[in-house]
Amino acid sequence: MKNYIKPFVIIFTLFLSITACDTDDDLVFTAAPQGEFAFTNTFLSEYVLPAETSTNNNIGVVFSFNDADFGVQTNVSYELQSSILGDFTDATTVSTLSNANNQIEVSIGTLKTLAEEYGIVAPNSGVLNFRVRAFPGDTSSTTEMFTETQQITVTLLEASTGSGSGIEISSWGVVGSGYNNWGAFADAPFYTTDVADVYVAYVSLVDGEIKFRENNEWTNDYGDDGADGTLDAGGSNITVTEGDYKITLDIANGTYTMEEFSWGVVGSGYNDWGTTPDAKFTYDYVTNTFKVGVKLTDGEIKFRKNNDWGEDFGDTGVDGTLDDGGDNITVTAGYYAITLDFENGTYTMEETDIWGIVGSGYNDWGATPDFSLTPLSNDIWVAEIVPIVDGEIKFRVNEDWGTDYGDTGVDGTLDGGGDNIAVTAGNYRIMLDLANLTYELNQVN
Question: What is the DSSP letter of 22?
């Protein structure tokens, strides 16, 4: 009996081994979608696309997303898709600037091409539909995951033919240590008025001196020898003190005037009725209005001149009309673009995305509120006299890191999620051109 059992055990063991080997060879590891696959960045409320072609290769929009999980270890590829119908039965793969590290960048030129395919024509706006497809293996794979559809609004600009208000930038400007360190960057422009040879400029000055010159050069300039308001060709520098001014240049009569001039937002909804400076409006010559980008809290606001109650506007009828000394305007917390139209006696308040300045060079990376920039026409954003310290800065939307710009190449180009921008201490005039994805940091002093 003993001799029979031993061979049987050996044969049975061999059978199990062979069966196990066959079973291993037959195992198939099937990839299957697991968990959520979604976008991780936030998107702007509007993407403005310029008519000019010089910026076609700049980044227009960025799509960031988490890793797609197929339940097994496998290489996963990603592609961006577009759908005119919106249900992706007509899905097409979008050409991209880059596709790496869970981030896809699409150029301005590609967005313009897609907009045309969607039937959007300048100067109109429309919605483009996108999603990201994830798949193991090659593009023919039938195992795949998709993000939810992301719609973005694009606006196609027409080629610039001047301002809609009829007001134009003149050839005259303000230069000096009180504005641009004697020409370290462009002079502050004077604008045309309805009177020939009379021009007006709205400027924020620092302590120093200024003159008025033509075409950003010294061939033709005016100073004031007697400090009497008379324009003297090649005359003495004009001493100025820090503040906001309206300067009127009357070439025909050889005179000029300078008056303290600013409009701001004041109230419990912004600065506790003046415990800190009012949020200052900036002149937009394209629309002949004054604009400001501002973060408000629940409360009330009014608009007043020169941080003083000598002249102020409210809205007694809650009808968008500027009423002299009128009722306080109730506001809720959020980010707003506010426009004052003195020509028509109206104002508008639009809750929208507001770009701000953040960094060790300004607010210790968000320890205090970001410095809000003001949106002007043609997707230009400006900030006047920003106090910067040695460090680094970036630009972000609504004090949040969902959307931000840096400068990876230190070339003045805005790069989505790009490198921090090194800055040195001083007061700066800062401009973002979101249509062309460029920026300027102009140190005043």
Answer: H
Q: Are strands 59-64 and 103-107 parallel, antiparallel or unpaired?
A: antiparallel
Would you state the structure tokens that stand for residue 59, as one six-digit string? 């980044």
Question: What are residue 442's DSSP bridge partners?
Answer: 429
**The overall pTM is greater than 0.85:** no
- At the topology level, CATH places domain 169-260 in Immunoglobulin-like (2.60.40)
Phi, psi of 389 (to 5 degrees): -115, 170
Q: Does domain 263-351 have CATH number 3.10.20.90?
A: no
Q: Give the Å distances, CA to CA, from 388 to 244, 326, 372, 406.
A: 19, 37, 14, 16
Rounded to whole angstroms, how far apart are CA atoms 161 and 52? 12
- Give residue limits of the domains in the chain: 1-161, 169-260, 263-351, 355-443
Measure Cα distances from 23 to 28, 30, 50, 130, 158 in Å: 10, 16, 63, 44, 67
Tokens found for residue 406? 């840096």
Contact 439, 433 (CB under 8 A): yes
The pLDDT tens digits of the residues spanning 119-176 come to 999 889 999 999 999 999 888 888 999 999 999 999 998 775 555 678 999 999 999 9
Closest CA to 269 of 294, 239, 288: 294
- CA distances (Å), origin 239, targets 228, 342, 430: 12, 30, 24
Spatial contact of 391 and 419, defined as CB atoms under 8 Å apart = no
Would you state the CATH architecture of domain 1-161?
Answer: Sandwich (2.60)
